[in-house]
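User: Just a sanity check before I run the rest of the batch. Below are the structure tokens for the first item. I only need the designed sequence back.
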């Protein structure tokens, strides 16, 4: 979820900063082994949760010797960080279809929201895991805040661009608008894909209805032409 909790005064377990992850291996074999460990770790974390995951389970799933793990990661926290960084890359760059600056702003907005929501759905179990771990570990709480800032900053730049082109309300502050609108989409995605929020009739939240709703609210908030 892209909302962040304030820092507290409790001491978190000591852990190396997530930014201090070792450099990726330079050999093809090393890269394959590391990738297999990250993929296996994701599967085990999603299946067993963070607290119940054992390094032995990860290496068994990856099909490699237990000692190989420490060639690439120091501990369980580091391999979780690697898993989360891959998920963040997927969500920041979800491979949406190419759109042009001259395209209808509403169509661009809808395409962007679709790509984000699809990526969030793909990574929903990891988003739940990040929320869980961030509550008890200061380093992962910082990671979550940096993740949030990355999304907010990207969307703020998009809003500013629309304002410069004269197609978005110039009276709103791009950063504040981004915080409000990005947070709305993130919370709705978290509720739908992590918490399994239901519609009134008891069915899961309809993806297209969710997409149309958040896109319309974005467009209305920015006063895009033809969608006010």
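Assistant: Here's the designed sequence for the first item:
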């Amino acid at each position: 979820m892209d909302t962040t909790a304030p820092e507290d005064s409790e001491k978190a377990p000591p852990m190396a900063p997530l930014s201090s992850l070792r450099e990726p291996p330079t050999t093809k074999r090393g890269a394959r082994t590391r990738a297999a460990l990250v993929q296996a770790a994701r599967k085990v974390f999603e299946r067993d949760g963070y607290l119940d995951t054992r390094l032995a389970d990860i290496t068994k799933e990856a099909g490699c010797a237990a000692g190989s793990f420490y060639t690439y990661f120091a501990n369980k926290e580091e391999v979780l960080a690697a898993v989360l960084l891959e998920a963040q890359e997927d969500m920041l760059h979800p491979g949406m279809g190419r759109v042009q600056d001259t395209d209808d702003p509403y169509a661009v907005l809808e395409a962007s929201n679709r790509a984000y929501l699809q990526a969030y759905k793909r990574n929903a179990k990891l988003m739940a895991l990040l929320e869980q771990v961030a509550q008890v570990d200061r380093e992962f709480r910082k990671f979550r805040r940096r993740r949030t800032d990355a999304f907010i900053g990207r969307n703020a730049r998009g809003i500013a661009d629309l304002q410069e082109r004269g197609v978005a309300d110039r009276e709103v502050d791009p950063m504040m608008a981004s915080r409000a609108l990005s947070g709305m989409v993130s919370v709705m995605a978290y509720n739908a894909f992590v918490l399994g929020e239901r519609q009134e009739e008891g069915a899961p939240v309809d993806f297209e209805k969710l997409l149309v709703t958040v896109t319309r609210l974005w467009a209305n908030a920015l006063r895009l032409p033809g969608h006010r």
